[in-house]
Every structure is written in C-alpha cells, then in structure tokens.
Amino acid sequence: MKTIQIQNFTTQAAGGPTNLTLTFNEKMKEYFQRNTSLKMANINPDLMFEGSITGYDVEAKATSSSDKGGLNRLTIRVQVKFTNAKDENKNFDQEFSFYQDFPQNQTVAAVEKELIPKIFDQIVLDIFNKTAGEW
Questions:
Q1: Which of 98, 19, 114 has its CA nearest to residue 55?
Q2: How far apart are CA 97 and CA 108, in angstroms?
Q3: Would the pLDDT of 122 be above 70?
Q4: What is the CA radius of gyration of the chain?
Q5: What distance in Å separates the CA atoms of residue 135 and residue 132, rounded to the nearest whole number?
Q6: Beta bridge partners of 5
Q7: What are phi and psi of 40, to 5 degrees?
C-alpha cells in the first residue's frame, strides 16, 4: 500500500484571508484521499508534498470606457516540492497557479470566499494530474 504525506503548506504571500494555507492543505488532503488509494502517513511516505503559497495578487485586467478596470483578476500561486521515494525521476519543485476574474465594482474581500475554492480546485487538480494521474 502506498502512502502519502502532505506537509502543512506555509504562506509567503502578502494578502488573502488568514486561513488560506489551512484551506489549501485541506483541499489537497481531501482530493488525494477521495481519488486515490493512498493512505496518509507521517513517517517514510512514498509520496511527499511540501511548499508554500507564494502569491495572492489582484490586478485590473479589462478596461471599461471610464478607463477603470472592468474586470479584476485574483491569481494565487503555490510553490510545490514533490518527492517520490519510489521513483526520484518524478521529483519536482514547481509553481502552480490559477486565477478567477471578478467585476471591478466588487472588492476581493467580497468575492474571495467564492473564488478561492475554485482557484484551489484547479491548482490541486493540476498537481494531482502531474503526480498521481496515472493511478
């Protein structure tokens, strides 16, 4: 039986809610437990994930006729170090990111409860596909 360890990710990003890393950690654990037969282990795991949230950025993307951003974009970046104890050729240290756009007349604080789960869903899926998609 293969085992997995998802270490608690840290945050190096300015901004975002205080529970951002907790939310990401739980998404990772839930997704891998739901979609693989891997068992969580803290000692000598076959697969190990660690890293940090390195970006939480909001920027104007589309302009309106009044030269203000018609759309804002929330982008989250996560640096992931993956270690495969059974096949070190699969090890990597890579950044994953995804974004969601929202109307410029809304604040990020007003929409982040809706946007963060969507962004994390895609980032976790991308990580999963790169590391465990063949199972």
A1: 98
A2: 17
A3: yes
A4: 17
A5: 6
A6: 48
A7: -70, 135
Contacts 24+ apart (CB under 8 A), 85-94: 85/44, 85/45, 85/46, 85/47, 85/48, 86/2, 86/46, 90/131, 92/130, 94/130
pTM: 0.91
Distances (CA, A) of 133 to 16, 35, 71, 83, 101: 30, 9, 34, 15, 28
Residue 114 is which amino acid?
E
- Among 64, 59, 78, smallest CA distance to 120 is for 78
What stretch of H or E contains 120? helix 108-131
Query: Residues 6 or more apart from 109 whose CB is under 8 A from it?
Result: none
Looking at domain 3-131, which CATH architecture does it have?
2-Layer Sandwich (3.30)
46-92 pLDDT, tens per residue?
A: 999 999 999 999 999 876 566 555 899 999 999 999 999 999 999 99
